[in-house]
Amino acid sequence: MNSSTDKYKRTNPTVIQLAKGAVEEVKFKGHSLCLKLTSTLHGEKYIYLSFTDRQEYDRWHRKCKKATDKLPTSADLSNCHLEFLPETIFINDQLAMLNLRHNVLKERPIEEDIYTIGWLDDLHKFTMLRSLNLADNNLKVFPLALCHVHTLVELNIASNKLEEIPAEISELSNLQALHIHNNHLRTLPGEMISLRKLFILVLAFNHFEVIPAVVPQLTDVRISEVENIIMAGNQIQSLPAEVITKMRYVKKADFRMNDLTLPPSEVARFTALEHLTHLDIRDNRIDELDIRVVKTLEYLNCERNAMYSLQVNGTSLKNLLVAHNSLDRVNINPKPEWLLQIDVSYNQLKHLPEWLSDCFFLQKINACHNTLVELPSRLLVDGKKLKSLRVNHNRLMALPAEVDTTFLEEVYIQHNLITHLPDNFLRRTNKLRVLNATKNRLSSLPPLNENQDLNKVQELYLTCNALTDSAMGVISGYSRLKLLHIAHNDIEHLRDSDIRRLEMMQELNICGNQLRSLPASVGELSKLTILRAHSNALESLPDFKKATSLRVLDVGHNHLLNVSVTNLMASQLNLLDMSLNRQLKVDPKEFKTVKNRKSVCLVDLTGQNRTLPGLGHRPRELQEDEIDPSQAWKVGFSETSGTRNKLSVAMLKILHFGNEDESVFAVFDGGYNDEVPKILVERVPGILRDELKRDRSGTGYMRYTFLTAHKMLKGTGQKLGASGALCHIRRVSASNNMNQYTLHLGNVGDIEVVLCRRGEAVVLTRKFVTTEDDEECLRVYQSDGIITEDNKVSGTTKNTRLLGCSYLSPHVIPDPHLNAVALRHDDEFIIIANRGLWKYVAYNEAIEEVYEIGNPIVAAKKLQDLAQGYGSRENISILIIRFNTDKGPSLGRLRPNNRSMSIDDVEAAAQHEEQRLLKQQRKREISASNTTLRSSNGKVQRQSHGGDRRRMQYSAGEPDIDAAAADVMSNGSSCVDSPFPSNRSISPNHPVLKPLPNQKYIKKNAAAEWDGILQKRLTNDVKDKEMKQVSSSISNEDVFLGTSRMVAVDLDINSNSNISMEKVAQIRNSHVITRPWANDERTTANPAYTAYADDDSLVDSSETMMASNHSVKNVRHTIAMFENITKDDSRETVSGSRRKVIKVERDERTPYVDGSAPCQGGSVPKVHTEILEYACDSSNDGIHVPGMSNSSVVTADVHRPQYRGSVESALHKRQANCDVDTMHDPEVTIVEIARL
């Protein structure tokens, strides 16, 4: 191409405006392919373009012709960071639509010396402009020049900082739509009443405290065409009568996210709303609503209020949305015959109204997460057009027995108590596509329709039931089945003929069953992409060569032996999991061959870089519930991409972060992008190390780790973001060489960390989601942000804090929630997971599901199976860290095979160590003073019931503990190991904790009530009567630990008792305890002291206590338990509980410690009786002594009768939600009882 207008070539390019110009085909200086471009702007100019190529000539001719023939009517200059409008835009005076959103345009300053064009004041030059968008330009004053663009039909000036609208806006007589939301407006000018063509007025997310007077006036059809009032996200507290009476013609009112309470006095005036059809009052403070006066209402949304009562007029009602309230019933009168959809989920409903069956047009019912016990009896008969039924997470025991042909397409009944489906359910639901019955009690399935074409189920979820082999015969009748989740059932065998019929199968989950083999037909399913068969007993696998679509194969935690990798893996396989097959032998050459052909991911779910046998050195495998003593914690994870093509979640697992007692774990979820999570996983460890070098105290380093990571995302983090949770566990140096582990964590977004403490879920993170965090919604509101109707910040994301997404700042920020936890002895494991798990599985349910699974790998996989069984189809990432941090001196240790973990309470441990040193010094002084007393006293002989004698020496002042300690250390029982070396004498006053339970304990619902009554009775009946004598007689034998007081009490055993000396030492060291972590306030019962009553190693028929420092004559105490008490007994009990009474008798013929005898020897004994009451759960049989029935009589030989009032402290209540191993009153003594 050649251009010539001058004699010589120009070095600078020539610019010519083709707008309002012309193009001609000419011959110039012998050039046949030549174009003449003419511009008439700023004087006539022209330019010649010559071409040598015909195709290029034609292309330029078409473009120039198009540019000069017709000027564009719209221009989009949004997000250009413009301070001035470009001069060239004013060439097109026929412009009709102009988008100037997200710039920094301004009005012409008064002091301007040289006139320039491009200010907002020049917009009136567009004489044909009809639509103008000036949103998000940081305008603080309404540009008056806009009021002179009389042709405007639509004006959008939202997301600025306008505080008022000028009265001159009334000049825009043609204005039909006015968007002034997300500003700082508090009032509106009355002159707006002249905007008679206006029909759209958006006032949401301003600072209105009352509805402006002009707004209801504009809704009058005689004044304007405004039909809708959109005032969401303001500060409106009430709807005055003078306002409501003027809203007669309003059809749609949106008052969500305000401060409305709507008392009956205000709602009574709603009779004036004769045309109201849509009312949105979500996220207010309404606790009671009676809106029956509005007969025209078709749509009502009052979700997320504190509503406990609702009454609606059903004359015209079509959509009712009242989720996330506290309703126990829904009152709609008259019956809503036009009802299309009803959502009453997350309430407290026990029954659905019977009239739902009569709603002919009803299509959707959502009543999940209630307490429903039954459904309307004719719902599946008369509900002819019902398409979706969601009643999951209720207490249903059965579906309605009567079933007729329906239009049901989706049925969600997971997490109920259903034992069987109606006989005709699967036969009559001919349009059913999705059936979810996960976590019920189904043992069989009803028959299908004889006509196979009518069995149309494509997705079937039956995880966590009790289905057997026969169920697969029914399931195989669904020839269109694409997804089958039947994990964690009782299936032992899959028939080849059944699997062969499922030709359309794409995803199959058969984990957690009892399968020993898979049929060959599984490897022939050509459309199968995902096969999960972990946690079975598989010994071999079929040939998967014909499964050409297989991408994911999970056969971990089985009994696989010799497996050929070449035959195992299909050519397209992307993920192979064979972990936890301890006997699996793999030839390394086969892996090498496969890796040469394609990329294969062999997942090591332990995070410890272990390899399969034969591929390198592998340490000894532990048993499933065995804790490796060399590691502070065990780690397992599971993740899946779901139905998405890529996994947008990344994990960080560093077991040794600096040293062996310091680890870092993290999960990052990018939503639909995988770029940000990958960057964070790579850079966060280095950032964290740098921050720790600067400051290791407090939680400041965690905050700066997040902020620095956000900064390092740079351009990638402008429009992309990720949720994240980062956990840093480390051992902190403490005095006396005691263990102290702390967990520092931070999180943004919706990834959550849940700690299992005493078997209960403790949420350590904060969920930054608009629907669950009112404080965050307020912060977004105060930062001039908006939350759209789908609960998304600026219509983009529901998360209010993310790493990245800088373009949404300051509405979405990276500032994390921080938390620091001193791990305790009863903290067992933590779960870190993204919304793919927590959206479907509750916190406590997740804890309960994996509480008894010692292997964190298997536990993580089960949670994934459960979430997918509930219907999760998105990315799922689950990371479980099970603690095992008792290494070194501590107050108590776990048994090696115990599933639970134990972490020392360091403060109590340090205090105990200090007291122990003082006691040792005191002990030496006492020993020196009692040398003569030891030599004068004889030895006490103890004879067993079987005739075998065993001698144990006692001194009158100090027992010989070494022999007892030797028995404890060598008897091989489950007693807690000594925290001291075996060659060191153990203090008799040293308290040793019992091991945590090896089984799931029973939760203690009435622990607080029981403790209250126990405290009152002990205070009134024991403390005042006997503490003076106690304090005078135990001045040198008291043991203090923390805030609790313990008195060591000696037992002198009767000659006919059956005594085991090993048990003497065992009880001495494991039963006489005081909680070192106790404090002044009431604490709930600890599972470590109630759940292990079945362990014979802890409770035995020969259990008793050792003698202590003073040898005293026998005092006989009999404790009898009985249920009936006199009716006139008015002592306090817990309401609704059964009363348990313990009668304590004392034989006063026995001398006291001081030698006095209340009764002469040989006289008739005088028995003093004391009644102690306990309030127990009515579902139990009363207070239980381990190993005894409630009718047993328990006797204890106690050398000090003063302690009789507190003898109940030794009763272990296993079933009545009580814990009596320790007394909360610091002045109450602890006495053990012995069962003879």
Automatic annotation (TrEMBL):
Q: Which InterPro entries match?
A: Leu-rich_rpt, Leu-rich_rpt_typical-subtyp, LRR_dom_sf, LRR_domain-containing, PPM-type-like_dom_sf, PPM-type_phosphatase-like_dom
Looking at the record, the residues that make up the PPM-type phosphatase domain are 634-883
Q: Where are the compositionally biased (Polar residues) regions?
A: 927-944
> Pfam families from the xrefs?
LRR_8 (PF13855), PP2C (PF00481)
Q: Where is this region: Disordered?
A: 916-953
Please name the SUPFAM superfamilies in this protein's record.
Answer: L domain-like, PP2C-like
Which keywords, in A-to-Z order, does the entry hold? Answer: Leucine-rich repeat, Repeat
> Origin, by domain of life?
Eukaryota
Record-linked PROSITE patterns: LRR, PPM_2
GO CC terms in record? cytoplasm
Protein known as: PPM-type phosphatase domain-containing protein
Q: Which organism is it from?
A: Ridgeia piscesae (Tubeworm)
